[in-house]
C-alpha cells in the first residue's frame, strides 16, 4: 500500500510499486522526480524493470503477504529511505544536479521484509516480520547485505512500529511495538538491556508516536489510544475510540457521503491509522477507525481527550475522491494534514480550521499540480486495502490456547532458534586457544 511522508525541508514523497516513489518540492511543485526501483548486480546499482518486475519472498509465516511500502525521511531531511519489494531498502540523498533532485546513495538488503523502520540523521533502524531489529549507519555509501550477526535485538512476534527515543535526560532508547500487545523500551546501543514495558493494550499495537522526549501515544487493535510517560513506562491516560464515534461532530468535505458505521463488532472500533503533530499549544491527532477507514478521518487534540471536552470532528470526504490510501502531517509542528486517495488526488486540510468549524461542510482551495502528475499513466499508486484488511484481521484474531495456535507455535519456534544461537555463541567462546611454547 502506498505511503506518504513529508520532510522537514518540505519535500513530499509517495511510495508507488516495487520500491519506486515520487518526490515533490512543496515549495515549488514543478520540481518533482520519479525514483525508479533498482537492484544489486555485482555490488553496483542497476535499474530494474519497474512495475513489471516480479519478486519472491521465502518468508514462511502466515503474514507473507504483508509488504508495507515504507518511506521516510531523516529528521534533517537529507536522506530518504524506501522499502522495496525485493527485500531491499534504498537510501537517497539530495543531488547537485539541477534536474535530478535526489540520487541513490546505497542499497541495503535485509533478511526478511521490513515491517517498520525509523531513521535518525546518523543511522537506520529496521524492524522485520520475525521480530528482529537491525541497525546500519547512514554515513556509509557502499551497498550492504545484512546478516544475522547484524541483529541488535529480537521479539517473539512481528514488529509493527519502531522509534528511536532520546529522553530529556539524554538517555537513548529504542521503542518497539509488536503484535502481542507489548511496547518495549530498550537501551541503545545495548538493546539487550530492557528498560521496561508499556503494558495495557489487549490487542496488537500498530502505532507508537513521539509527543515529546518523555511522552508517547500508542494506538492498538483494541480500539484505544494510550498516553505513556518514559522512561518509567507509566500509563497516564486511556482514550477509547468509541469517544470519537459517539461525540464527534461530522463535517463533510465538499459534499456528504453516507457512511454507515456498524458498531456491533469490536474490530470496527480498532485503530486503522494514526498520526500526530505537536505544537506549542497542543497535540493534534488524526486517526481512522476500521469501520470508516475508506472515507473518514477523526480529528481531535490531546487536551480534548484529557478533559473529555467532546470537541472531536469527523471529516468525511466526497466519495468521488476515492478511497483514502494514507495521510500525514506536513511536519511535527504543523497543523496541515495531507491526504492521499486512490483516485490520484492529494488534498491538504488545516486541522485548526476544521476543529473550529461550526458548519457541516468544509471547503479549501488546493494546488492541483501534484494530483495531475500522479494521474499520469506511468505512475501507479498502490491501494491494496483488501490485502491489508486480511492482514489486519489476522493480527486481530484470537490466539487460542497454548499449543493450538500459530502464535504459540511461532513463539516456541522463536525461543528454540534464540536458544540455538546462544549455544553456538557460547561454544565459540569456549574453544581453547593453542599456544606455541
Automatic annotation (TrEMBL):
GO cellular component, one term: cytosol
Pfam family, one: WD40
WD repeat intervals: 198-230
Alphabetic keyword roster: Nucleus, Repeat, tRNA processing, WD repeat
Role summary: Required for the formation of N(7)-methylguanine at position 46 (m7G46) in tRNA. In the complex, it is required to stabilize and induce conformational changes of the catalytic subunit.
Main location class: nucleus
GO annotation terms (biological process): tRNA (guanine-N7)-methylation
Start-end of Basic and acidic residues biased regions: 41-57
Family: Belongs to the WD repeat TRM82 family.
InterPro entries linked: Trm82 (IPR028884), WD40/YVTN_repeat-like_dom_sf (IPR015943), WD40_repeat_dom_sf (IPR036322), WD40_rpt (IPR001680)
Region (Disordered): 38-67, 400-437
Keyword field contains tRNA processing: yes
Organism domain of life: Eukaryota
This protein's name: tRNA (guanine-N(7)-)-methyltransferase non-catalytic subunit
Localization per record: Nucleus
Assembly notes: Forms a heterodimer with the catalytic subunit.
Pathway: tRNA modification; N(7)-methylguanine-tRNA biosynthesis
Keyword tRNA processing in record: yes
Amino acid at each position: 500500500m502506498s505511503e506518504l511522508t513529508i520532510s522537514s525541508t518540505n519535500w513530499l514523497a509517495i511510495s508507488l510499486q516495487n520500491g519506486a516513489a515520487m518526490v515533490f518540492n512543496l515549495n515549488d511543485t514543478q520540481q518533482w522526480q520519479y525514483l525508479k526501483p533498482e537492484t544489486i548486480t555485482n555490488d553496483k546499482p542497476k535499474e530494474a524493470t519497474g512495475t513489471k518486475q516480479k519478486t519472491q519472498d521465502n518468508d514462511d509465516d502466515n503474514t507473507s503477504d504483508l509488504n508495507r511500502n515504507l518511506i521516510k525521511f531523516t529528521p534533517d531531511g537529507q536522506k530518504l529511505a524506501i522499502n522495496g519489494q525485493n527485500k531491499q531498502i534504498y537510501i537517497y540523498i539530495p543531488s547537485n544536479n539541477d534536474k535530478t533532485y535526489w540520487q541513490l546513495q546505497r542499497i541495503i538488503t535485509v533478511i526478511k521484509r521490513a515491517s517498520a523502520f525509523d531513521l535518525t540523521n546518523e543511522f537506520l533502524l529496521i524492524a522485520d516480520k520475525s521480530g528482529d531489529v537491525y541497525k546500519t549507519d547512514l554515513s556509509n555509501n557502499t551497498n550492504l547485505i545484512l546478516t544475522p550477526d547484524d541483529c541488535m535485538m529480537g521479539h517473539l512476534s512481528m514488529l509493527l512500529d519502531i522509534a528511536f527515543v532520546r529522553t530529556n535526560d539524554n538517555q537513548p532508547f529504542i521503542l518497539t511495538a509488536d503484535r502481542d500487545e507489548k511496547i518495549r523500551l530498550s537501551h541503545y546501543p545495548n538493546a539487550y538491556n530492557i528498560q521496561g514495558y508499556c503494558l495495557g493494550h489487549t490487542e496488537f499495537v500498530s502505532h507508537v508516536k513521539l509527543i515529546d522526549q518523555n511522552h508517547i501515544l500508542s494506538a492498538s487493535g483494541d480500539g484505544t489510544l494510550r498516553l505513556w510517560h518514559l522512561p518509567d513506562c507509566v500509563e497516564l491516560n486511556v482514550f477509547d475510540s468509541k469517544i470519537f464515534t459517539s461525540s464527534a461532530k461530522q463535517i463533510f468535505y465538499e459534499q456528504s457521503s453516507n457512511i454507515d458505521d456498524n458498531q456491533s463488532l469490536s474490530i470496527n472500533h480498532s485503530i486503522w491509522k494514526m498520526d500526530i503533530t505537536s505544537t506549542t499549544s497542543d497535540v493534534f491527532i488524526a486517526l481512522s477507525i476500521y469501520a470508516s477507514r475508506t472515507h473518514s478521518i477523526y480529528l481531535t487534540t490531546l487536551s480534548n481527550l484529557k478533559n473529555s471536552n467532546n470537541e472531536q470532528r469527523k471529516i468525511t470526504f466526497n466519495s468521488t475522491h476515492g478511497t483514502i490510501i494514507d495521510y500525514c502531517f506536513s511536519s511535527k509542528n504543523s497543523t496541515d494534514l495531507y491526504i492521499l486517495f486512490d483516485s490520484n488526488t492529494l488534498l491538504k486540510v488545516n486541522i485548526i480550521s476544521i476543529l473550529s468549524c461550526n458548519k457541516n461542510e468544509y471547503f479549501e482551495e488546493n494546488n492541483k499540480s501534484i494530483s495531475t502528475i500522479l494521474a499520469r499513466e506511468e505512475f501507479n499508486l498502490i491501494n491494496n486495502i483488501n490485502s491489508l484488511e486480511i492482514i489486519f484481521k489476522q493480527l486481530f484474531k484470537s490466539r487460542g490456547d497454548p499449543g493450538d495456535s500459530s502464535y504459540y507455535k511461532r513463539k516456541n519456534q522463536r525461543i528454540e532458534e534464540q536458544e540455538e544461537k546462544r549455544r553456538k555463541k557460547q561454544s565459540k567462546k569456549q574453544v581453547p586457544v593453542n599456544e606455541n611454547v
